[in-house]
Amino acid sequence: MLFPTTIAGSLPKPAWLAEPNKLWPQWRLHGDALAAAKDDATLLALKEQEDAGIDIVCDGEQSRQHFVHGFLEAVDGIDFAKRVEMGIRNDRYKAMCPTVVGELKLRHRVHGREARLARAHTKRKLKFTLPGPMTIVDTIADAHYGDRVKMAMAFAGLLNEEVRGLVADGVDVIQFDEPAFNVYMEAAAGWGIEALHRAIDGANCTSAVHICYGYGIPANIEWKATLGDEWRQYEKFFPALAKSRIDQVSLECINSHVPMSVLKLLHGKDVLVGAIDVATDRIETPDEVAAVIGKAAEYVPAQKIIACTNCGMAPMRREIAALKLEALARGAALARKTYG
User: Fold this and answer.
1) In 3-state terms, what secondary structure has residue 331?
2) Residue 338 contacts by C-beta under 8 Å, 6 or more apart in sequence?
3) Which domains, ranges and CATH numbers included, belong to the chain?
4) In the structure, what pLDDT confidence band is assigned to residue 153 with cuts at 50, 70 and 90?
5) What is the pLDDT of residue 221?
6) 271-to-4, 86, 161, 167, 209 alpha-carbon distances in Å
């Protein structure tokens, strides 16, 4: 099937699980009750995707408070009480970040429970998302390694442990979220890709990297307004990414200023074309979604295109997110008729 559909990763959490409409919500429950509620929310996220017509489904990141820290919570060597104010994404905004104080080790499997639950309850292809090594080191303070590359490779090793576990759980696609790639372009073309290779080493699955300009939060919206009429940052590292061992690249396309022509620099890769804008509550029409896919097809072979959302949908209202999922599926169906 041409133009299968998927999402970048996160979906809004139900109000009975966590605070609504927040990127970093507080849980409503604790202990065993929280664990059971996360299970319920994961199954609901799967059902919502299937009902909308999404082909490659995921857990919606329902068990994670934050896309980076959901992984870090299972890592020894991090002091969450020792928080340091840091400039994130090249000082785009500041955050209080935990500190690496010793050798990094996985305490236990991170997403095994939700991966096995999801695999048991869907027959569709299953994708799981993990934070990329470069984005992790851009979101945590270092009082041990003294070198960003060394720390990134240490995190990549831990990610590889989890990736191998997820593959054993039956996950088909592992996606690394690397918003830092379009901030540190030269590093992304070098040690950023090397760290991803370390993270997927020996894993028998499809690998993907999600690169975007961030959630639709004020700090990101203000930053994007400074980038000019054409966002050509990707040209600096797409040639290196095209030569990498990563199978798929996920990008935001609709309502962005990324010239579609840069997609041809990803020759040989599957491209997850963001055709749903997560920075607005307006629901895209099928025609609009299909038009984005059609424009991408001018530079990427149609069989290499997967229709996707621009970024995660975690901070959105649930009813809006559900309608956008339906719009994505309907738009992809229209694109098959128009461009297939």
Assistant:
1) helix
2) 290, 294
3) 31-339 (3.20.20.210)
4) very high
5) 73
6) 11, 33, 26, 22, 10
